[in-house]
Amino acid sequence: MSKQNTAQNDTRANADHADIAALPFEKALAELEDIVRQLEQGNVALADSIRIYERGEQLKAHCDALLKQAEARIEKINLGAGNAPAGTSAFDPDG
């Protein structure tokens, strides 16, 4: 594959993933779950598998970032005046 083809594919991939930044967490997670299901079933051509795997990686990163933002907001809410704990613990996603 030439450098020009690689650059074109990278540009196309970036355009394909540009919409991810606008997705709310729930939609991004649902799409990621759909991608995992498709890949687990194994009924996807190799080239398509690679393409949707790459999108899945982008969706995962987006979901991780949104979760970290939510965690930071919850911790901020739990802090009292002067950043002293207000009697609650840091956010624990596992309960």
TrEMBL record:
Catalytic reaction annotation: Exonucleolytic cleavage in either 5'- to 3'- or 3'- to 5'-direction to yield nucleoside 5'-phosphates
Keywords: Cytoplasm, Exonuclease, Hydrolase, Nuclease
GO annotations of cellular component type: cytosol; exodeoxyribonuclease VII complex
Keyword Calcium included in the entry's annotation: no
Enzyme class: hydrolase
Primary location recorded for the protein, binned into one broad class: cytoplasm
Domain of life: Bacteria
Nuclease found in the keyword field: yes
Gene3D superfamilies per UniProt: Exonuclease VII, small subunit
Subunit-structure text: Heterooligomer composed of large and small subunits.
Annotated family: Belongs to the XseB family.
Protein name: Exodeoxyribonuclease 7 small subunit
Source species of the chain: Saliniramus fredricksonii
Lineage: Bacteria, Pseudomonadati, Pseudomonadota, Alphaproteobacteria, Hyphomicrobiales
Name of the gene: xseB
